């Protein structure tokens, strides 16, 4: 028997297609699978092709009664049902509750959707859409990469990608900045995800015709050239295109409907937030010296003024000062215990026997990491008094390296939430700017969200209550709070760090992440924790780690001058800017920040290239389908029998489960369990779960196709490219924003008036990396000119290529300690 | 290892038992249109060589029967944890954090369990897939700690096996029963209802133990076929060493799908019979269910798809739940376990490790030792007895006498005492020495039986040592025997006359008396000869009486049992 397969195995013919979700197994489709895929694509395409308009543009809803209930409607129905009914009396969704709300919800949704007539008008106007309807077939036949273009019609990005093959990198970079600028200008609040310029449509139309002709010629050429090597490429484009056709029902609707909802609530946040904090405070945290820096010098530490003991003292002081406000630490280790451990570490440093670079550092752990000392509540009433009888592997490794536990930290219940407000211990508060204030003043701060679900961890690090903190990242739970609080949030590749002892939310997405003050700290902690663990079967083995290390070749610097190499750390590195991340909701300040980030990378010698991750728009829907499904499964174990809360209520009908679970779980958790339960019911499994898995695969393929390094686990680079490393259209890393804006006010994200689907959008930039399992880091990069709160940029790279993330992030970090320019874009 | 504890829990009895049955239901044929389920295109009629119509009830009703067998894997540790497997251990003493589904724990697949399951699959002549995967099957029940059972719903370990039944197995004809699939899954804990009234106690010792679910194709047509199949499967599992296969201890459990239809017409609705815990109840339940369904059809009552139980006391089946109330298990791929990848080398290595399988073994020992069918079946019916037999024979004893001493004397005595056969009770060399003593004529068969009794009671010495100590060596000394015979003839002169008149049977009386006098030490063959000579009878062919006569009664007993 072997550990997880590192290479793809041919699937025996007898088997029908099975759900694919092992990130370690290359998806190889049988002929049967492809066939299923193509037959299932009868759904009208217009839903996918055209973004929904704002609700004001809808007039009638004649065709609605027949319409199948969209998944978003169900989502709503479920959430409503959740608030009305007891949870899951017998482990099954409540068909009655859903059926009851079905009618109203569909009607309600109908009004917000476009009618079919409007859709056909739209098609006539845009002219090109009739073409695009046929494109599916074209794509299938040609199997040509360039046919992709039509999916991004009207998007300058796609064009840029195409032309980029012919131009120099310099030109591409220029094109890129143009694109960013133009799409900013054109961005229209009513266009939901892609910046799609209506004004330029006519011109684009002409260009498209031309492009089509060019394409036809080049297709023919390629066809002739490739005639002799006809190989079915099931892992590449061909298959993926077929998949894309199938995968567009259910989840896309879910996503679109979520978008429509979002529009309806009209929540573009930026203008609603006045400036509240003192400009002086803004960078206070960002410039705070790292503990690691002080300790790095090894035995010399004894001669400096800073020792683990003084640092621990500092942490304890900050806890006393700020924890009441930030509400980060929930359970604290006895100060005396911390002091004595720190004193020991100090002695070790003095005698030159320090266990590691972070020996003696005080760290906080998110409440969903099991530790045998303090409670492990997951911020839930269900586990309020739960003390784990064991310690998580990640924490054990840190303890072995000399790290001192400071305490356990607030979070969103079971990791479900984006603002750390769904916690039994109350919300964590964003401490940004707090260090410059006195304790009395803190009450005046206009309370902001610390992000979630690892909000407490980010807050604790930002207010220097600890050297660093562990968080868990399922869909962005480390990166979002890091961006909001102005710290470094790092999510390594899935499988790098053992999940043993991390209470599961969605097992295939959960990743142990770190929150630190600097990139160096993150790297130091990460390297301690990234070890093989036989207790977690999804954790990479030593052998796999070695293979990955061998796959990743160093960047060839022979063609550069030594002097340049010294001055420009990113020489030879190509960084991609995914066009699909340029959404309409992006606050102007965020866009500005992004643009500055690009400039910083260019200055450091990197070549910046626009790239396309076409399936990004499907990510949120897929994430909430898979995430909730796995959550509903993982949370089945909380029945109050072996541990955790057990209801005192007694009644006739064997209500052990329903009472215990409806008392123990909070609102958001119930909502997700209910949604996940629905997703997994036999009637909807195919429509939701499997579709979402296919989308996940497509998203992975998207990434594989833009990275110049092949996916070390699947061996895939998206296409049958011979040498992706030297393909100048491929990149080593990606740069995107982390969140659409700075931290929102808590009052805007708390309370019953908040629509849960709005909250789902907080993670739109972080979810793709989670679905693909690739490493991703949120690096603080300046503050917003409007409210002075910090914002981060996200650096992603290919699976297993954490070093590239660190490399690029370090450059961003260094330049990031500058305020945003005063110049506003709009 | 966790501290042992006993859990108390409130639950209402009525609904409790109802839910208990939800533990292992799988709709086995046709109807499930689950996406991507690795299941062959199943019609009720098997694709491979359809057996002719047979075993019609009342001349026109054809029963269609398929089995689902859950066999506990005979491994040291549980399927996904290093917790020890156990049977009848004190409650909750073999429970790890993983077994109790503590937050943050993750399953770790046991190699031993996989090896045994692969071996079983190979023994069933099934195709073992190089890649298989695990899935979660969800339902709430207190003895299911995770809230889901890890199983192999979409991609089972192996498919397409078969078991051949033949007249040697007790069937009147040859029949090949297809094995749909074999999959790995977890066992649940145990709920103990009403030990204290109104309370259900939970014992998680069994939770997480590995199970093999073996599903047959609907190839069976009678309860007899089903019973023989279960027995044969049991023997196979024991031979492979993958499961104890004890239905009474629950290490093997059997669910049966039964439908009945009129020959030439469409198949009937199928009912699933659950929780049958002996071969007898499997057979009886099938018969009862066939009768019930036929009666329903004959009285024009529709038979609906449902799950039924079997009441041993009344010999009837009863409804547990209908198809409508069947739970939705919300199968989901297990995200905590990567796919199970087996390379061909490893599968081949396991195949080489397979012991001799029952069919091959049966053929071999029947030929090699010239044994009859009944003897062979008895020999193979007990775990380890064939090896025991062969080890005694290998020491040079006659196979005929060894088989007699093993299955008649030893097994008969063990059965009478209610002891399960084990090679440890009377070790093979001990029995070998005993047989050798008898065969050499050192002791009589009667004394031999006494020695065997001593051995069963715990004497661990060889027969020779016991004979020496007890002074039971047979009297070979003719003078001594002569004297005994003469005394006896003098005592019963009338009987001597009877013999001399031709009533040979009375000779046995003398032999008996002399054996009694000598406390069994006399060699009856020699005594017989001396008596005959002294009474002036012709020389008779001796031996048969001494050996065969002594065993006739126990042989009858064994035959009756079979």
From TrEMBL, chain A:
Active-site residues annotated for this sequence: 366 (charge relay system), 453 (charge relay system), 477 (acyl-ester intermediate)
Biological process according to GO: glutaminyl-tRNAGln biosynthesis via transamidation; mitochondrial translation; rRNA processing
Domain Amidase: 313-805
Pfam families per the UniProt record, alphabetical: Amidase, Rrp15p
InterPro entries assigned to the protein according to its UniProt record, in alphabetical order: Amidase, Amidase_CS, Amidase_dom, AS_sf, GatA, Rrp15
GO molecular function: ATP binding; glutaminyl-tRNA synthase (glutamine-hydrolyzing) activity
Composition skew (Acidic residues), residue ranges: 120-153
Annotated segments matching region Disordered: 1-172
EC number of the protein: 6.3.5.7
Keyword tags: ATP-binding, Ligase, Mitochondrion, Nucleotide-binding, Protein biosynthesis
Primary localisation category: mitochondrion
Residue spans of biased composition, Low complexity class: 28-42
Matches recorded under PROSITE patterns: AMIDASES
Keyword ATP-binding found: yes
Cellular component terms per the entry's GO annotation: glutamyl-tRNA(Gln) amidotransferase complex; mitochondrion
Localization annotation: Mitochondrion
Reaction(s) the record says it catalyses: L-glutamyl-tRNA(Gln) + L-glutamine + ATP + H2O = L-glutaminyl-tRNA(Gln) + L-glutamate + ADP + phosphate + H(+)
Annotated function: Allows the formation of correctly charged Gln-tRNA(Gln) through the transamidation of misacylated Glu-tRNA(Gln) in the mitochondria. The reaction takes place in the presence of glutamine and ATP through an activated gamma-phospho-Glu-tRNA(Gln).
Family: Belongs to the amidase family. GatA subfamily.
Subunit structure: Subunit of the heterotrimeric GatCAB amidotransferase (AdT) complex, composed of A, B and C subunits.
PANTHER family: GLUTAMYL-TRNA(GLN) AMIDOTRANSFERASE SUBUNIT A, MITOCHONDRIAL, TRANSAMIDASE
Protein name as catalogued: Glutamyl-tRNA(Gln) amidotransferase subunit A, mitochondrial
Gene designation per UniProt: HER2
TrEMBL record, chain B:
Record's subcellular location: Mitochondrion
Family: Belongs to the GatB/GatE family. GatB subfamily.
Subunit structure: Subunit of the heterotrimeric GatCAB amidotransferase (AdT) complex, composed of A, B and C subunits.
Top class in the EC scheme: ligase
Protein name in UniProt: Glutamyl-tRNA(Gln) amidotransferase subunit B, mitochondrial
Gene Ontology cellular component terms for the protein in this record: glutamyl-tRNA(Gln) amidotransferase complex; mitochondrion
Role description: Allows the formation of correctly charged Gln-tRNA(Gln) through the transamidation of misacylated Glu-tRNA(Gln) in the mitochondria. The reaction takes place in the presence of glutamine and ATP through an activated gamma-phospho-Glu-tRNA(Gln).
Lineage start: Eukaryota, Fungi, Fungi incertae sedis, Mucoromycota, Mortierellomycotina
Domain Asn/Gln amidotransferase: 387-535
Molecular function (Gene Ontology), one example: ATP binding
InterPro entries cross-referenced by the UniProt entry: Asn/Gln-tRNA_amidoTrfase_suB/E (IPR017959), Asn/Gln-tRNA_Trfase_suB/E_cat (IPR006075), Asn/Gln_amidotransferase (IPR018027), Asn/Gln_tRNA_amidoTrase-B-like (IPR003789), GatB (IPR004413), GatB_Yqey_C_2 (IPR023168), Gln-tRNA_amidoTrfase_suB_CS (IPR017958), Gln_synth/guanido_kin_cat_dom (IPR014746)
Keyword entries, A-Z: ATP-binding, Ligase, Mitochondrion, Nucleotide-binding, Protein biosynthesis
Record keyword Ligase present: yes
BP terms from Gene Ontology: glutaminyl-tRNAGln biosynthesis via transamidation; mitochondrial translation
Catalyzed reaction equations: L-glutamyl-tRNA(Gln) + L-glutamine + ATP + H2O = L-glutaminyl-tRNA(Gln) + L-glutamate + ADP + phosphate + H(+); L-aspartyl-tRNA(Asn) + L-glutamine + ATP + H2O = L-asparaginyl-tRNA(Asn) + L-glutamate + ADP + phosphate + 2 H(+)
Pfam assignment, any one: GatB_N
EC numbers: 6.3.5.-
Major localization class: mitochondrion
Record region (Disordered): 537-562
């Amino acid at each position: 028997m072997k550990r997880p397969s590192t290479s793809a195995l041919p699937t025996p013919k007898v088997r029908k297609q099975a759900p694919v979700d092992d990130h370690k197994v290359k998806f190889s489709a049988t002929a049967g699978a492809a066939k299923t895929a193509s037959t299932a694509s009868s759904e009208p395409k217009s839903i996918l092709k055209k973004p929904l308009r704002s609700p004001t543009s809808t007039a009638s809803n004649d065709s609605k009664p027949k319409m199948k209930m969209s998944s978003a409607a169900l989502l709503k129905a479920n959430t409503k049902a959740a608030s009305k009914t007891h949870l899951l009396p017998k482990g099954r969704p409540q068909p009655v509750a859903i059926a009851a709300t079905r009618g109203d919800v569909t009607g309600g949704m109908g009004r917000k959707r476009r009618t079919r007539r409007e859709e056909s008008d739209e098609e006539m106007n845009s002219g090109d859409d009739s073409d695009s309807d046929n494109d599916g077939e074209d794509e299938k036949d040609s199997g040509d990469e360039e046919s992709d273009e039509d999916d991004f019609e009207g998007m300058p990005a796609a064009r840029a990608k195409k032309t980029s093959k012919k131009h120099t990198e310099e030109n591409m970079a220029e094109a890129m900045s143009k694109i960013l600028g133009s799409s900013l200008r054109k961005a229209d609040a009513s266009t939901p995800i892609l910046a799609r310029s209506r004004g330029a449509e006519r011109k684009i139309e002409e260009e498209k015709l031309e492009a089509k002709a060019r394409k036809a010629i080049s297709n023919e050429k390629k066809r002739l050239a490739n005639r002799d090597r006809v190989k079915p490429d099931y892992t590449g484009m061909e298959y993926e295109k077929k998949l894309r056709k199938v995968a567009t029902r259910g989840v896309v609707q879910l996503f679109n409907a979520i978008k429509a909802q979002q529009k309806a609530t009209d929540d573009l946040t930026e203008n609603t937030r006045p400036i509240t904090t003192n400009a002086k405070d803004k960078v206070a945290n960002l410039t705070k010296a790292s503990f690691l820096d002080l300790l790095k010098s090894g035995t010399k530490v004894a001669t400096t003024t800073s020792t683990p003991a003084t640092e621990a003292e500092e942490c304890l002081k900050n806890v006393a000062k700020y924890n009441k406000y930030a509400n980060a630490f929930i359970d604290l280790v006895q100060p005396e215990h911390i002091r004595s451990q720190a004193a020991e570490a100090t002695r070790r440093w003095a005698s030159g026997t320090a266990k590691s670079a972070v020996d003696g550092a005080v760290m906080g752990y998110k409440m969903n990491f099991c530790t045998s000392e303090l409670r492990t509540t997951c911020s839930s009433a269900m586990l309020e008094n739960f003390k784990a009888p064991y310690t998580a592997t990640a924490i054990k490794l840190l303890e072995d390296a000399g790290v001192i536990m400071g305490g356990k930290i607030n979070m969103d219940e079971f990791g479900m939430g984006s603002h750390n407000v769904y916690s039994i211990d109350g919300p964590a508060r964003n401490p940004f700017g707090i260090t410059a204030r006195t304790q009395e003043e803190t009450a005046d701060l206009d309370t902001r969200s610390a992000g979630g679900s690892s909000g407490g961890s980010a807050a604790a690090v930002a207010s220097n209550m600890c050297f660093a903190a562990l968080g868990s990242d399922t869909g962005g739970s480390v990166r979002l709070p890091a961006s909001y609080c102005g710290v470094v949030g790092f999510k390594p590749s899935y499988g790098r760090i053992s999940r043993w002892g991390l209470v599961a939310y969605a097992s295939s997405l959960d990743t142990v992440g770190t929150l630190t003050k600097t990139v160096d700290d993150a790297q130091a902690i990460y390297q301690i924790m990234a070890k093989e663990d036989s207790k977690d079967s999804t954790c990479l083995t030593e052998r796999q780690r070695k293979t990955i290390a061998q796959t990743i070749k160093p960047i060839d610097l022979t063609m550069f001058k030594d002097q340049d190499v010294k001055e420009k750390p990113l020489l030879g590195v190509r960084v991609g800017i995914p066009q699909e991340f340029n959404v309409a909701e992006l606050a102007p300040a965020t866009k500005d920040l992004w643009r500055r980030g690009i400039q910083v990378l260019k200055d450091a010698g990197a070549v910046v290239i626009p790239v396309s991750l076409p399936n990004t728009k499907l990510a949120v829907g897929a994430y909430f389908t898979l995430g909730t499904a796995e959550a509903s499964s993982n949370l089945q174990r909380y029945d109050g029998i072996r541990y955790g809360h057990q209801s005192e209520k007694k009644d006739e009908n064997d209500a052990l489960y329903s009472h215990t679970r409806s008392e123990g779980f909070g609102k958001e958790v119930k909502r997700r369990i209910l949604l996940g339960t629905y997703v997994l019911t036999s009637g909807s499994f195919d429509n939701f779960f499997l579709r979402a898995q296919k989308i996940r695969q497509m998203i992975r393929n998207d990434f594989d196709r833009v990275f110049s390094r092949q996916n070390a686990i699947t061996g895939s680079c998206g296409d049958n490219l011979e040498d992706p490393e030297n393909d100048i259209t491929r990149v080593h890393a990606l740069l995107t924003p982390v969140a659409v804006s700075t931290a929102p006010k808590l009052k805007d994200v708390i309370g019953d008036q908040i629509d849960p689907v709005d909250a789902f959008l907080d993670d739109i930039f972080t979810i793709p990396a989670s679905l693909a399992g690739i490493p991703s880091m949120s690096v603080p990069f300046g503050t917003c000119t409007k409210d002075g709160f910090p914002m981060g940029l996200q650096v992603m790279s290919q699976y297993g290529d954490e070093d590239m993330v660190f490399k690029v992030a370090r450059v961003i970090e260094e330049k990031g300690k500058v305020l945003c320019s005063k110049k506003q874009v709009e | 290892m966790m501290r042992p504890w006993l859990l108390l829990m409130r639950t209402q009895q009525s609904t409790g038992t109802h839910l208990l049955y939800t533990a292992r239901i799988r709709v086995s044929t046709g109807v499930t249109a689950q996406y991507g389920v690795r299941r062959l295109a199943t019609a009720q009629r098997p694709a491979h060589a359809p057996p002719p119509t047979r075993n019609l009830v009342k001349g026109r009703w054809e029963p269609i029967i398929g089995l689902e067998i859950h066999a506990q894997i005979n491994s040291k540790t549980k399927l996904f944890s290093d917790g020890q497997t156990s049977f009848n251990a004190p409650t909750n003493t073999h429970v790890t954090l993983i077994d109790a589904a503590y937050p943050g724990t993750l399953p770790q697949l046991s190699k031993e369990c996989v090896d045994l399951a692969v071996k079983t699959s190979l023994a069933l002549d099934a195709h073992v897939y190089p890649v298989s995967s695990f899935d979660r099957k969800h339902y709430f029940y207190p003895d299911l700690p995770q809230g889901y059972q890890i199983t192999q719903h979409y991609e089972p370990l192996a498919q397409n096996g078969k078991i051949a039944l033949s007249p040697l197995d007790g069937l009147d004809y040859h029949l090949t029963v297809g094995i749909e699939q074999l999959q790995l899954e977890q066992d649940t804990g145990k709920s103990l209802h009403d030990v204290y009234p109104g309370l259900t106690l939970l014992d998680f010792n069994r939770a997480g133990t590995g199970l093999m679910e073996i599903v047959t194709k609907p190839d069976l047509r009678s309860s007899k076929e089903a019973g023989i199949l279960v027995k044969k499967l049991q023997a196979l599992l024991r031979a492979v060493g993958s499961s104890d296969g004890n239905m009474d201890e629950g290490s093997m459990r059997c669910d049966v799908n039964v439908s009945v239809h009129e020959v030439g017409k469409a198949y009937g609705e199928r009912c699933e019979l659950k929780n049958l815990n002996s071969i007898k109840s499997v057979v009886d339940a099938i018969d009862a269910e066939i009768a019930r369904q036929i009666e329903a059809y004959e009285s024009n009552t529709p038979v609906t798809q449902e799950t039924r139980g079997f009441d041993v006391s009344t010999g009837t089946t009863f409804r547990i739940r209908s198809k409508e109330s069947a739970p939705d298990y919300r199968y989901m791929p297990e995200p905590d376990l990567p796919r199970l990848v087996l390379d061909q080398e490893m599968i081949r290595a396991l195949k080489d490790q397979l012991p001799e399988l029952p069919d091959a073994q049966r053929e071999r020992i029947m030929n090699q030792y010239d044994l009859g069918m009944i003897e062979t079946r008895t020999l193979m019916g007990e775990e380890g007895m064939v090896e025991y037999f062969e080890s005694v024979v290998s020491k040079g004893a006659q196979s005929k006498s060894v088989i007699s001493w093993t299955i008649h004397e030893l097994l008969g005595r063990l059965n009478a005492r209610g002891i399960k056969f084990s090679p440890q009770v009377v070790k093979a060399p001990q029995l070998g020495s005993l047989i050798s003593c008898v065969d050499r004529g050192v002791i009589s068969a009667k004394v031999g039986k006494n020695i065997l009794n001593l051995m069963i009671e715990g004497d661990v010495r060889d027969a020779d040592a016991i004979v020496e100590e007890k002074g039971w060596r047979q009297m070979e000394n003719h003078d001594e025997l002569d004297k005994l015979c003469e005394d006896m003839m003098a005592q019963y002169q009338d009987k001597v006359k009877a013999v001399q008149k031709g009533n040979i049977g009375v000779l046995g009386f003398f032999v008996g008396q002399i054996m009694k006098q000598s406390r069994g030490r006399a060699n009856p063959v020699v005594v017989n000869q001396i008596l005959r000579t002294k009474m002036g009878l012709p020389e008779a062919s001796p031996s048969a009486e001494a050996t065969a006569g002594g065993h006739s009664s126990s042989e009858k007993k064994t035959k009756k049992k079979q």
